[in-house]
Design brief:
It is a single chain. By secondary structure, the chain is mostly helical. It has a single domain, classed as MetI-like (MetI-like fold), CATH 1.10.3720. It contains 10 helices and no strands. It is globular, with a radius of gyration of 22 Å. The chain starts with a helix and ends in an 8-residue tail after the last helix.
């Protein structure tokens, strides 16, 4: 029943989309679902399309992974060493506040456009994960850590039975947000930087040629790839880390 309900909702919005396209009746201003699918099929016949999707995906995922690892490591260390958090807090606030476009221009000046989406994705993801890990540990870990210290629990067991279950709920939410933001910022950086064979380059070309159907098709591909990646990562976290969280009350 849930699957049928979701399919029904999707069909409802597809119909609304098509109705709006019929009302506007201008393919340049607004493409309907049929035009979008037609453009997607046409794009998929060109090998450049798959090269672009794969290249962007690998670069953006490398950035997301770097941001997740950096945020997790430094967030954990900042919980343990408050002085580190004091030094990193201004940097994290700056990364959050500075517009992505400013970072894009700066990275273009420093390293060019070949790894632009990787760097930008990492910069966007890092503060999300860092803040989530630090908040998760601070909010609930005190009593459990004290108990582990009193009973001389080995660090490996502390990480496995205390830290991971405590952080996992907020970490999953951070990952879900990070994947979406990573792809959005990475592709936006590609649109500005114009690396060859990238999804951002495809979006830019669609804009240049006023091909709204192709623009929507590229957007659908980006959303789909991001959504699948998020679901796969969440599934892997559930399988290898479990679903529960420790309660310290």
């Amino acid at each position: 029943m849930k699957i049928l309900k979701k399919i029904g909702i999707v069909l409802f919005w597809l119909i609304i989309w098509q109705i709006i396209a019929i009302i506007i009746h201008n393919d340049i201003l607004f493409a309907g679902p049929f035009q979008t699918i037609t453009s997607l099929v046409k794009m998929s016949k060109d090998t450049i399309f798959f090269d672009s999707v794969l290249s962007s995906y690998l670069h953006i995922m490398a950035g997301i992974l770097a941001g997740v690892l950096g945020g997790t490591l430094l967030g954990s260390l900042s919980y343990k060493y408050k002085i580190l958090d004091e030094f990193l807090s201004p940097i994290v606030l700056m990364i959050k506040a500075v517009p992505v476009a400013s970072f894009v221009v700066l990275v273009l000046i420093w390293i060019g456009n070949s790894n632009l989406s990787t760097v930008i994705s990492a910069l966007v993801v890092f503060p999300i994960v860092y803040t989530s890990v630090l908040t998760g540990l601070r909010s609930r870990a005190t009593k459990l850590i004290e108990m582990a210290y009193v009973y001389r629990m080995p660090m490996f067991n502390q990480i496995r039975y205390i830290y991971i279950p405590l952080v996992l709920p907020v970490f999953k939410n951070a990952i879900a947000l990070s994947v979406g933001m990573g792809f959005k910022s990475g592709v936006a950086a590609e649109v500005i930087g114009q690396p060859i064979s990238s999804m951002g380059n495809g979006l830019y070309n669609a804009k240049i040629y006023l091909d709204t159907g192709e623009l929507f098709a590229w957007t659908a591909v980006i959303v789909l790839v991001s959504w699948i990646t998020e679901k796969v990562i969440t599934l892997l976290l559930n399988v290898f880390c479990g679903k529960g969280a420790v309660n310290d009350n």
